[in-house]
Specification:
This protein is mainly β and 89 residues long. It has one domain. The protein has one helix spanning 77-83, and strands spanning 27-31, 45-52, 55-60, 71-76, 84-86. The relative contact order is 0.27. Residues 1-6 and 10-14 have low confidence and may be disordered.
Length: 89
């Protein structure tokens, strides 16, 4: 998987994140500065589904195959879109 700028995710490898959406209507988003952050093992990705006109439901992208996706809560559209951008899996 690559971001819009075609930069690979830091964890792109055979043991990388499970990019299977947790359900219908979820799209992959990544933190805009994930590549610059020094958080070990964090790929900066979340599954996102618009649940309300001005809010998103987010779920974790498991760091490796076999891990479940977990709820991350609901975030306001403006704050979320300021820090995250949609990427193609």
């Amino acid at each position: 998987m690559a971001t819009r700028s075609n930069e690979p995710l830091p964890s792109d490898d055979l043991e990388g994140p499970d990019l299977t959406p947790p359900g219908e209507g979820f799209e992959l988003y990544r933190h805009r500065e994930a590549g610059e952050m020094r958080t070990k093992g964090w790929h900066g990705c979340y599954w996102v589904s618009r649940k309300q006109k001005a809010a998103y439901e987010i779920r974790t992208v498991p760091s490796s195959l076999g891990e479940p996706s977990a709820s991350g809560g609901v975030f306001p559209k403006d704050g979320f879109e300021e820090h995250y951008e949609k990427v193609d899996p």
